[in-house]
Fold these 2 entries.
Entry 1:
Amino acid sequence: MQATTQLLHSIPVDAQTGAIAVPIYQTSTFVQEAPGVNKGFDYSRTNNPTRQELEKIIAQLEKGSVAAAFSSGLAAIDAVIKLLQAGDEILAVNDIYGGAFRLFEKVYKKFGINVTYVDMTDLAAIHRSITLKTKLIWLETPTNPTLKVADIRAIASIAERYKLLFAVDNTFASPVYQQPLSLGADIVVHSATKFIGGHSDVIAGLVIAKDPEIGQQIKFYQNACGAVLGPFDSFLLIRGLETLHLRVQQHTRSATQVAQYLQQHTDVAEVFYPGFGGVVSFRLKKDTEATASTFVQATQLFHLAESLGGVKSLISHPASMTHKSIDPEKRKAAGVSDGLIRLSVGLEDAADLVNDLEDAFQYINETRKKSAHRKPAAGFVPSN
Ligand SMILES: *Cc1c(COP(=O)(O)O)cnc(C)c1O
């Protein structure tokens, strides 16, 4: 059976009522027949029927044994780091999501967990960076915003050799293109805010574990620390998952067209697209903040906003938005120059999206001709 059929039919019809959609159990507590005697639910932080359904579906989709749903992608990452102890070290991908970097450096460092960052496309560098204290390898692939792809299977064998936990942030690929647990990873996390939710209407995170014991530890931290996903948001993710394959395939088709268009454009120096998914980045030949800033404000269909993976196309300027807090030298070394622009290609018609970009290119060229010393426009969305 194909994955999409399997997914749709892993969502059960409600046994009580025959409801074909998963009911939203918007309740905090559950009435007990006698103290400690219940129907499998006692308090919604610990377990909720709607959330449980979501967790079952995503565990199956990612080929894991246990899944836990959190109130954000960062809460999901946080739960994984709680598997570690003071004195442990993390080996993390160098162009890591900014929020994960902040969590590691500003929160966990003060609890005695240190992180080393390495280019995970360089396997020798991974070997070299492992110390006796390393306990966890943290990978994102493809990375943001330059979409570098690492070899999960090869890194998994390194993790196995040194008996390290291996976690993969699978947000950008989605389970449609990549199932890290099948390639040897121990843990997968998602910012379900992106492709899994898919409609830019929910903040959510997921952790999926291969080993049931690790899964139970994650469930323990989910309940003990409490950043659980609510019933309505769980419903939204189930609804998003129902169209995940369809949406992601279309994101890829349109993003491929957009990447091809950019590739041949005379104003573009470099295009970053791994061949799948909805995110395309490109560097302007005129690699300046002023030009990029004008460009990202000139599109009409691509809305200027952070985030990705939704039905509506988004455009962003990493150097002044998502990657603003990174030291400019380090930022440039990671490929995030001032003229780099990131697109999240949505589900509008691809030809309309290409036309929108063409208009923006024409606009920046006219603007440059008309006012050579015009100041860059203000009004960027502050970094989150
Ligand atoms: C957005 C994102 C996160 C954080 O998720 P939130 O839902 O915003 O907390 C983590 N990792 C990646 C790769 C992301 O894109």
Note: The pocket of pyridoxal-5'-phosphate is lined by residues 72-74, 97, 99-100, 140, 144, 169, 171-172, 191, 193-194, 203, 205 (CB under 6 Å).
Entry 2:
Amino acid sequence: MNPKKLHCATVVFIIYFFSLNVHSQLEIGFYSILCSEVEFIVKDEVRKAFAMNPRIAAGLVRMHFHDCFIRGCDASVLIDSTPQNTAEKDSPANSPSLIGYEVIDNAKARLEAVCEGIVSCADIVAFAARDSFEMTGGLGYDVPAGRRDGRISLASETIKLPSPAFNVDQLTKIFAAKGLTQEEMVTLTGAHTIGHSHCSSFSNRLYNFSGTSRQDPSLDRSYAIRLKRQCPQGSTNQSLVVPMNPSSPGRADVGFYVDVLVNRGLFTSDQVLLKNPATKKQVRENARKPSLWMRKFSAAMVKMGQIGVITGDDGEIRRNCRVVNG
Ligand code: HEM
Ligand SMILES: *[C@@H]1O[C@H](CO)[C@@H](O)[C@H](O)[C@H]1NC(C)=O
Ligand SMILES: *[C@@H]1O[C@H](CO)[C@@H](O)[C@H](O)[C@H]1NC(C)=O
């Protein structure tokens, strides 16, 4: 090998080595010595909240996604606004639709009592998302931990979250920017098999499609009739929500993909997955193979949970998940 080639190979190796490192910053069992009860306590709080209101599970899965896509999984989504700063949680992307903050607060309070200053809010969110998915019938998975909490949360940055009006190219790009593949995007969107949506997230499809008074032709007619009944035109009632997978809104099954196949995806961003040959193939495959989707979903959640994490001595372990340490 000539020196130039060798040099090139070394550079490639170093880049490869560092990229491996990036993905191995977090560890399964990170708290086993310093706070061995952590996963038990988080699960117990999720279980209690779930018993009172099963809808909390979908909220906590979505919370992890919204946390990770903005500034990495650093619990920036949990920080409260101050008179000087409007935080992520008060952006239109999160307010009033994102729920579950109290579950994280309750877990954090118990954890501070037994192992003060040890467990990050970002890890609590990651554990709670896993527990929630499992409680709705999804496959459990090990959550690598060791995330530290960030100190910045800006409402303006939530524009980096995907819009429900996106097409496949836009969705693919925004996930690629976070290191996730198109297939992982399709896999993760399967989370829409649990939970509810406010009418405002899709009512353009019913009443004002592409700025006309038509309805979205890609939406099943009889489903559209039902949705119109549930979401009257011009309603501004913020407590109106509809299930995203009406046949089993509380179950982590492949109902989402089955819906999309019969033109009953709730959002444009769901239904467009049929418009691209590659994503359509995955929708079909996931609909037919629940256990394949489950495995892919767990793996993709673990990968999503590593986006832009802060580790080591960087960031902080927030004492109160809503407030950066003084
Ligand atoms: C592909 C791009 C995505 C878009 C455009 C999108 C958009 C949305 C929108 C608009 C809602 C309804 C909010 C409301 O009006 O109440 C929603 C709900 C939800 N999303 Fe997504 N989402 C995406 C991907 C994901 C991912 C990757 C996950 C998690 C892995 C996720 C999990 C959820 C869950 C669980 C709900 C239900 C929340 C609840 O019931 O409280 N979404 N999403
Ligand atoms: C209808 O959609 C257009 C753009 O698509 C938007 O400018 C307009 O404000 C919408 N009208 C209503 C009533 O939502
Ligand atoms: C808003 O919707 C909720 C849920 O359907 C309903 O209970 C409530 O009465 C509505 N409020 C108004 C002002 O229409």
Note: The chain has two domains: 27-160, 168-304.
